[in-house]
Amino acid sequence: MLCALALAGLLPAAAARAALTRVGPQTPQVTGGSARPLPAGTRLRVTITLKPRDPAALAAYAQSVSTPGSPDYRRYLSPSAFGRRFGATGAAISAVRSSLRARGLEPGAVSRGGLSIPVSATAGQLQRAFSVRLERVAHRGRASVITADARPAVAAGAAAVVQSVLGLDTSGAPHPLLLRVRRRASAGPLAIGHGGTAGAQPCAAARAAAPGQSAYTADQIASAYGFTGLYQAGDEGAGVTVAVYELEPDDPSDIAAYQSCYGTHATITYVPVDGGAGPGAGSGEAALDIENLIGLAPDVNVLVYQGPNSNSGSPGSGPYDTFNQIINQDRARVITVSWGQCESALGQPDAAAENTLFEQATVQGQSIVAASGDSGAEDCDTGGAVTQTQPAVDDPSSQPFVTGVGGTSLTALGPPPTESVWNSGGNLINDMIQPGAGGGGVSSFWPMPPAQRDAPATLGVTTPLAVGACGNAGGYCRLVPDVSADADPNTGYLVYWNGSGTVFGEPTGWQGIGGTSGGAPLWAALLTLADASRACSTSPVGYADPALYRAAATDYAADFNDVTTGNNDFTGTNGGRYAATPGYDPASGLGTPNALALAGALCADTVRLPSPGSQRSTVRASVSLRLRATDTAGIAVAYTASGLPPGLKLDTATGRVSGQPSRVGQYTARITAHDSQAATAAISFIWTVGAEPTVSHLSLIPARAGPQLTFTVAAGRGSPALQTLTITVPRYLRLASRRGVSVSDTTARHTRIRFTDHAAHGTTLTIMLREATHSMRVRLAPPSLRAAGGQVQAAALQTGSRVPLTLSVTDANSGQSKLTRKVTIGT
Hints:
- By secondary structure, this protein is an alpha+beta fold.
- It has 4 domains: about 5-50 and about 90-165, no CATH class; about 175-605, 3-Layer(aba) Sandwich (Rossmann fold), CATH 3.40.50; about 605-690, Immunoglobulins (Immunoglobulin-like), CATH 2.60.40.10; about 695-825, Alpha-macroglobulin, receptor-binding domain (Immunoglobulin-like, Sandwich), CATH 2.60.40.690.
- The strands form 14 sheets. Strands 11, 12, 13, 14, 16, 18, 19 and 22 form an 8-stranded mixed β-sheet that branches. Strands 36-37-44-40-41 form a 5-stranded antiparallel β-sheet, with no helix packed on it.
- A hairpin with a 6-residue loop joins strand 36 and strand 37 (about 710-715).
């Protein structure tokens, strides 16, 4: 093992003297197999993930933006806005980049969200830079992996900012969560009719192939889960983009054959990440994900992000980088993921980096759905030589800001469908059945998120099963999955894969595939249809869990199909853990969807209440502000208010704020609109009340050509500077024209102010100042004024007389001030 001191000796002297700090927990050592040093010239791509500037504020906003009634509800940010508000600071980023360069590395561009910096370098450069030794460990019959003998070391000045260094260890590679039946004895219970006539309809070849494959066509799945009503309403996902996360390639001709059969024309665009995932047809995972999505949302726009897996020919940080590009490009409203690994194999540093990235997705309004795994309650058991029987759950489905999708066996379409928890573990009769079970259980990393923690007790989420595993002392831990869908390979999804036969020894063309991989794109399709619906069209669902658990609490029987039989104890070593129960359980989550009702429920909380922006008023001046909330369901909306300036009140039925402010000051007004179904929207805005403008030094001096009126106007306390004034004089002092009108700034030694007269007739003069001022002197002299009858005749305007005079000055920015007094005519 090379020590840090020896490696430092290979660096420039200044870098060698710099203090180093190791970051992240110790990487578990890979035992067994043959190990040899990784050749120094091997190129790897690693990613340095950065801590957000205020993790608590980010977590709070991610919850707030997903919570109805919050002032931030669905106030989504762009990646750039996210970076400015929550990403690492510019100084922190500069410190990390400088430290990397000092260690001989050339950092790439920081992500738009300010959470990561990529580095591409040789193994030798990375070993020297991070003071580690990299080895390649090979096991018989398994892909070799790269491991590091120690935690990476970074400059002490950057260590407080660096969250993790991803890509130095590839021993925990994600795997596709699809399964095939090894051998089919005969056509099973699926040799039945098809579903609704709306939506994408299969061609004759697909209809004929489905029974022999014990697989359902897209229209059958749509019928079982209630999609048909959405199609009949004209909703097929148009205008919504979905990102498909893939760590393998697919053959576009397979996707084209599927679209040709179903008559769909979804746009499919491939986005390579870190050089892409290579050529070929893949394992069928990508084909399953894409085809299930477009079969259920025929008009969707699809972006297939393809990156290298960490144990592929391009080892490194590809799995994280693929998420990173999807989220920072922010082109998709929904993200579907059918790749995963058990939490302990991933490790806490990588999971924490993902969590921060998924918080960014939540703040941007993106929905993430992920398959929960195919090894039941024992997610780390992946069919190796040694059975791993400890309970475990799958990442990323266990992440707090991801919707995890479990698996069922769908034995009859219904409606309602007949389902049980998928679990064929230990049932290998004549090698006909591929063993597997829907993943689910208790996270060992994450406390229970509010969406689950705040669910009513009747749903059964907050049970003793959820206590203890994650180290949340005295509190609950994250439960997986959130929802479920068909996943049993014997009741699987009909897809078209390997049509060209390039994958030797595997089936070609139409075939049935199962696994929770099939359920993730199904739920992505449902969220797509919800986002495309009229109810949700202006505000996507975003992080779906709060809306899902809220829908379950409101009308569970209408929105979900409850799965109440079976368990997901895949290895049979955990006492039947976890058993299906009425309501929520860690084997099937909330259950499977009734899509028509649930899509409406996901959007039911979209009461719209536009903000009027900051308001300014003047004390004792009349106010009338109308707030206009709309309810997508057409239900009447009522209003409540708090924090209004004293003297103002809200009409709870109409949303109109009226009255006369009685006190100068700045107030934070909060208005909430709600309907009878508990859908709410809330806004907050600043309302500033300033003092009224003052009028002083009023004098009226007779002159041969007519009287001359002078006075001073000053802006009130807390009010903006004067800019536009409307002056109304007594009607017996008739304004003739703007000639003879002068304005001077009293704050600058009576400097004249240029102005534009937009109205000079009768008794009203409008003065628009080109430069705002807080105080000014106005003189109205002949021939602007002349005696013209009225209350006081011109003859009465003699020196020494006293006459009543009312002068009205209106400031367009603040309000109105009136001065009424008797004025002594001067000499």
